[in-house]
Design brief:
6 strands; alpha/beta; six-stranded parallel sheet; 238 residues
Length: 238
């Protein structure tokens, strides 16, 4: 029995379309550099003021709120008000052009070719849907948001849980076997495969990813296309 034709490509971001280092080496340092200026300019706005009040409650006794934010940044702490403020600062950076979303050069040509061929494109990342749209909307290859028909974050479930991928298939009204999930993380691929999706691991040398041996793998998006019978554009088509 032949496999069902693919109708959907669902992709991870960090380590798949974009360098793992982008968040740590670009986004985090930008937020740290811009923190004081952003708070000086926007600290009275309702959303920012609410974050600052929440951060003050979470800070150590007597600790200055800005010092607490910087300490959490250094610790890469998963603190709600910090994450919200970082997101607001990144939005400003993307919109102003100070930050450009990193994509590997092979990604945009393939995404465009796949969309032209009628494939439905979607994203599933641990970063928020808003952050996903910022990265793809202000990417090194231009605004790619119109290519995608769906964006999913961990509101749908954890990325290493099969139920999350079943929920995405249900939301897309597609049989799981018609969805190809791309990720660099083998455990995410395990979960997707358990839910019935087809999977491919991205093993990019620049990120130091190692093939798990449990799933098909490719070095880049043209490699994915060749392995799964998708259009393979010339990279100059970007």
């Amino acid at each position: 029995m032949s496999a069902a034709p693919l109708g959907v490509v669902l992709t991870d971001i960090e380590g798949t379309t974009s360098a793992i280092a982008f968040v740590k080496e670009t986004l985090f340092p930008f937020a740290e550099r811009a923190l004081d200026g952003f708070l000086d300019a926007h600290g009275e706005e309702a959303a920012v003021a609410a974050c600052l009040r929440e951060a003050e409650r979470a800070a150590r006794p007597g600790e200055d709120v800005r010092a607490a934010l910087r300490r959490w940044m250094a610790e890469d702490a998963k603190i709600g008000p910090l994450k919200t403020l970082q997101g607001l600062i990144w939005r400003q950076g993307f919109v102003s052009g100070e930050i450009e979303g990193h994509l590997w050069p092979d990604v945009a040509p393939c995404l465009r070719a796949w969309a032209r061929a009628g494939l439905f494109l979607a994203v599933y990342s641990s970063g928020s849907v808003a952050a996903q749209k910022l990265l793809f909307g202000h990417s090194s290859a231009g605004d790619l948001v119109p290519l995608f028909g769906g964006f999913f974050d961990t509101a749908v479930g954890a990325k290493r849980e099969a139920a999350s991928y079943a929920a995405i298939a249900q939301a897309l009204h597609r049989p799981p076997e018609e969805i190809l999930f791309l990720s660099d993380v083998a455990e995410e691929l395990d979960a997707a495969a358990h839910a019935g999706l087809r999977v491919c691991q991205l093993v990019r040398a620049q990120d130091g990813t190692v093939a798990s041996g449990r799933h098909p793998w490719a070095e880049d998006f043209p490699g994915v296309a060749a392995a799964f019978g998708l259009p393979v554009p010339r990279l100059s088509a970007a």
